[in-house]
């Protein structure tokens, strides 16, 4: 169920160090039964969307933290989940790149009809969501 239904973007990306960016995004698709060629084509497309078209063959250790986070976002979307859970998906990015990547993420989510639950400390990004819930000291203080 997790593989086929839920996409995860972890705050600390958790990429597989021995695999390239392309392989990190293709691997979950291959595990789900997609042929390698098709998985790599989709992986390359998603990585290109997030500005990593020139970094496909780089290992995570050769990518910046922000680039690794964008690989993680692409990986979370690779199997076309119905639900996306994202913890600070743009936390490692500079303000300009974060805005661009978040816009692309939202576009992909909305186009695919994915339910997205995004945790962020960035009020500008949160304001772009359809609904926000603000939590303070473990309690909901505002919902709308």
Series of secondary-structure elements, N-terminal to C-terminal? HEHHHEHEHEE
Mean pLDDT: 89
Q: How would you sum up the major sheet?
A: 3 strands, parallel
In terms of per-residue confidence, which ranges show pLDDT below 50 for 5 or more consecutive residues?
Answer: none
Count of DSSP strands: 5
Shape: globular
Count of DSSP-assigned helices: 6
Rg for CA atoms: 15 Å
Question: Notable features of this structure?
Answer:
alpha/beta; three-stranded parallel beta sheet; 44% helix
Task: Furnish the topology, listing elements before pairings.
Blueprint: H1 2-5, E1 6-9, H2 21-31, H3 36-49, H4 65-77, E2 83-87, H5 95-112, E3 115-119, H6 123-126, E4 133-136, E5 139-143
Parallel strand pairs: 1-2, 2-3
Antiparallel strand pairs: 4-5
Helix pairs in contact: 2-3, 2-4
Give an overview in words.
- The chain has 144 residues and is α/β, with parallel strands linked by helices.
- A 3-stranded parallel sheet has the order 1-2-3. Strands 4-5 form a two-stranded antiparallel ribbon.
- α2 packs across α3 and α2 packs parallel to α4.
- The protein starts with a helix and ends with a strand.
- The model has no long low-confidence stretch (mean pLDDT 89).
Task: Give a brief rundown of this model.
With 144 residues, the chain is of the alpha/beta class. It is 44% helix and 16% strand.
